[in-house]
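Tutorial, part two.
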Amino acid sequence: MLREMAERYETADFINGDPSWFMHQVTGNGNQETIAFLASVLSYGRRDLFLPKIQQFLDWSGNEPLRWVLDGAYRNDVPDDTRSFYRLYNNHMMRALLDALHDILSGYGSIGGFVRQRTPEHRAVEALEALSQFFYSRGIKGMVPSPHSSVAKRPCMFLRWMVRDGSPVDLGLWADFIDKRTLFIPMDTHVLQEARAIGLIGSKTASWNTVVKLTEALREMFPDDPVRGDFALFGYGVNKEKEIKYV
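Running the prediction step on this input gives:
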């Protein structure tokens, strides 16, 4: 059933209304990486609230987010003050994040260039740790959460976008230096509920240990691409809601 759900829902239509939509609106690997990273940072809460905030980045940058960050043009659009940017993030926090991203891009040419140097074993956990540690070292807390101490849902989603190849949704830009078999499922309340409903895991609370256990369970069905199970669990949830609606 899960394999069938993954086949049905991993299609180009999946990106409509999903934060992955934004990385398909720009051209060039650098632009796609940059907007995908920014989209992942803001992807929490209600979609009708965070999707317009991500769109702002494209509007400000004229669909050239890489150049917008590298040239420091973001400083003209995001003031360094304490007014709210989105929910827990204020303008000062967003400026700090963009300043740090600017340093990655200017120092390594791309986010992928930074990650490539820090993943000698080609494992996703190395990338998650490197990104979280870099931003934390710049005083940026919570915006790029660490694995082990959190579920790191948004960074895991960003890596799914960057690493998985052969997908109409995910870009696969980093497929040559991170093994997609090492990716982790992006865990949120919905994913946890669906996984429990099917009996894939028994955990009632989300933690990094739960992320690891669910990823291992999905590896049994998708041995070469365990995070394809993200689409399967999404599809299972959609179909369950349809069945409830029409009973």
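The two ends are 20 Å apart (CA to CA). In part three we will examine how such features are distributed along the chain.
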